[in-house]
Amino acid sequence: VIPYAATHAWFSAGCSDTWMCSGIASRRDFYERISSLSMAPLWESLHQLVPPQPAPKYQPAHWDYDAVRPFLMESGALITAKEAVRRVLILENPAMAGTACITPTLYAGLQLILPGEVAPSHRHTQSALRFIVEGEGAYTAVDGERTTMHEGDFVITPTWTWHDHGNDSSKPMVWLDGLDIPMIALFNAGFAENGAEDEQEITIPEGTSDARFASGLLPVDWKPSRQTSPIFNYPYARTREALARLTKAGPPDACHGYKLRYVNPASGGAPIATMGTFMQLLPKGFATSPYRSTDGTVFSVVEGEGESTIGDRTFRWKKRDHFVVPSWAKVVHKASSETVLFSFSDRPVQERLDLWREDRGGK
Ligand code: 1HN
User: Fold this and answer.
1) Which of 7, 44, 321, 352 is 20 to 30 A from 340 in CA distance terms?
2) For residue 99, with 0-12 CB atoms within 10 Å meaning exposed, 13-18 middle and 19 or more buried, which class applies?
3) How far apart are CA 53 and CA 360, in angstroms?
4) What is the pTM for the complete model shown?
């Protein structure tokens, strides 16, 4: 029999008072007897189960691209994209070692694909987003159509869609992968299968989804069959232009600077049902007002440099760095040059569940 205190870490046997001690001892004996029936006393863990406010068991963290890139390139010599299936270095939360999680609901990694390589076709119920960090001209194919990727592009591979990647350019390409892996694991709703061929058949000319869905128009008789966006590449050129124009149209938001969310044009919702994606511009010298929200968020620095204070830690960052802000941690960003930040979180899920909260500190 495993002692009760060994499996229920919150149960403390420490006691100095004799009368209390006998009470505690008999409680402890009771807990041990009911544990054999797979039962436990709620009153010993109630406060941890229902905390007065979020008490995340993960921490803020920062990945400096200058430190990361040599290892990514070294991985390129260790294994091919084909053998690896996906050659990715996982960005794992330091407080969640061994879990492949950057937050309890999100996975993040940096994927390398070298000139001439193919990452073979497969599909899975986990949805993925790509945010292009470095390189030009590699492609992703999703359900019969290719898209050529450029730095700053945001590309989605929705749940259960066939996808493969290739690099016909002359330079390595690196992107940030964001997946809802931990959420799908929580639900035990994961399915996956490999394609018959490394590269799926291309049946739709490149740019077709863009023409059908990304020009403020939709095909006249088209009805959405799923929550996922019918657009699968949101190019940086357009996002950047929108942000540049906004800086001329009015003052920045105190907490966000100029911040936009990516959208499924057919629903107004997030492009991926499980992950929200955002892009924000912070003017040179701008410091955001303290802000917190319940969605733990992963950031990719697209342009500029500065620092973020997350809780009691401060990280200096620059272009191509990544960092993570835990749920309900107070964050202040300071931009020392004009900065553009991409970010993603589980916000759409929390919103659907009426859970999402923010605290703008009165601003
Ligand atoms: C995956 O399919 C990709 O398609 C990237 O590029 C990262 C991490 C875990 C499981 C599947 C991709 C992944 C992944």
Assistant:
1) 352
2) middle
3) 16
4) 0.94
Which residues, in sequence order, are CB contacts of 39 under 8 Å at separation 6+? Answer: none
Q: What is the pLDDT of residues 285-329, one digit of tens each?
A: 999 999 999 999 999 999 999 999 999 999 999 999 999 999 999
Cα–Cα dist 304/163, whole Å: 32
The amino acid sitting at 324 is: V
Q: What is the DSSP string of 243-283?
A: HHHHHHHSPPBTTTBEEEE---TTTSS-SBTTBEEEEEEE-
HEC profile of 23-51? HHHHHHHHHHHHHCCCCCCHHHCHHHHCC
Strands 233-234 and 276-282, by their bridges, are unpaired
User: Residue ranges of the alpha helices (H) in the chain?
Assistant: 4-7, 18-35, 46-49, 65-78, 81-84, 181-187, 208-213, 236-249, 347-352
Q: Best of 102, 179, 180, 193 to mutate for ligand 1, by most ligand atoms within 8 A of CB? A: 179
pLDDT tens, residue by residue, 113-132: 999 999 999 999 999 999 99
From the CA of 157, give the closest atom in ligand 1.
Answer: 4
User: Which residue's CA lies nearest to atom 6 of ligand 1?
Assistant: 86
Is the shortest distance between the CB of 179 and ligand 1 below 6 Å? yes
